[in-house]
Amino acid sequence: MKKIFRISLSLVITALFMHCSANFNATNTAISYNQLDSTMTEESRSLAKLIKPYNQGLETTMNSVINTSEKDMLKARPEGILSNFVADLIFEEVNELAEFNGDLCLLNHGGLRSSLPSGNITVGDIYQLMPFDNEAVIIELKGEKILEIAQYLAESGGEPVSNIKLKISSPELILVNNKRVNTNTTYNVITSDYLAHGGDKMYFFENPVSIKKTGLKIRDLILEHIQEEKELGRTLNAILDGRLFQ
């Protein structure tokens, strides 16, 4: 029974992300889960038929338009429109919803798995962008650790950040809250639970002053923010602002 469940789940996940582009081109794609390809095995065809009623509801949900974007949002280094958009909204939403406030937000370039296209943005687009169930956490770090973050950003060439100003060639001059970092104080960094545990070699998160779980899934925050913008009559129009530069 467990084997059948794993195979069924694999089929759903494969169908969900079959339209992801490996080169991160921005494209509008309607997700379809109900095609039975002639190359599928008999077992796979039987399983696909079994889960078809559930897929039909999933397809409707995933293809629901939640807002529109005025431009293609692509990843780039040291700074990208997509990176700015996601980091800023996570910074804003966590500071609004969590008990503790963050001073900056740091995510990872590789964690954004696709682009967002100009035009209609669907629920499926966000699941392709963020297929992981990572949660937002707030990590309290000493000022000297923030300087380690700056050095990491310089060496990686840039990551999604918010409320930071940094010249890649002079990472020791990093600004947080528009002020030079004070090594005698502490800062609250909003990030994902994956990175908080050293993912992407972000070892500066080890031995923090404190770590606070928010219970907020990053993908849910992205979905809710985009929908809230639509309810307020605003389309998506992220920009580059020079927060990370050479």
Look at the structure and name the CATH superfamily of the largest domain: 5'-Nucleotidase, C-terminal domain
Rg: 20 Å
Total number of helices: 7
Beta-strand share of residues: 15-25%
What's the total count of β strands?
11
Terminal residue distance: 55 Å
- Whole-number mean pLDDT: 85
The class by helix and strand makeup works out as alpha+beta
Query: And the CATH topology of the largest domain?
Result: 5'-nucleotidase,  domain 2
In short:
This protein is of the alpha+beta class and 246 residues long.
Task: Please give a structural write-up.
- The chain is an alpha+beta fold.
- It has two domains: 2-63, no CATH class; 69-245, Alpha-Beta Complex (5'-nucleotidase,  domain 2).
- Helix content is 38%, strand content 19%.
- The protein has seven helices and eleven strands.
- It has a five-stranded mixed sheet. A four-stranded mixed sheet has the order 8-7-6-11, with no helix packed on it. The protein has a two-stranded antiparallel ribbon with strand order 1-3.
- The longest helix is centred in the first third of the chain and has 21 residues, at 42-62.
- The model is unreliable at 1-24 (pLDDT under 50).
Task: Itemize the secondary structure elements and their pairings.
Blueprint: H1 2-17, H2 42-62, E1 65-69, H3 81-97, E2 104-106, E3 119-122, H4 123-129, E4 135-142, H5 143-156, E5 161-162, E6 164-167, E7 175-176, E8 179-180, E9 186-192, H6 193-196, E10 210-217, H7 218-231, E11 244-245
Parallel strand pairs: 2-9, 6-11
Antiparallel strand pairs: 1-3, 2-5, 4-9, 4-10, 6-7, 7-8
Helix pairs in contact: 1-2, 3-7
